[in-house]
Sequence to fold (75 residues):
Amino acid sequence: MNPMAMIQMKSLFSKFKRNHPKVPQFFAAASRCVNVGSVIEIQVTTAEGKTLCTNMRVTEDDMEMVRQLAGQAKA
Fold:
């Protein structure tokens, strides 16, 4: 990844954490208990009141992708 893009992303993520402190805390807590077979559900309610919802059952491939991403984030 482009170093300048990484710096910009870090700045944007810091701003996101300031604006929504509970979201990163939630993902940190959830990441400790999600495993193969867990179901993740995402729901969005638009400003107009429309609801969109989906879910997925976590597979071993999903867990491998998360491990790879976590490794990249630490590098």
Remarks:
- The radius of gyration is 15 Å.
- The CA atoms of residues 6 and 12 lie 10 Å apart.
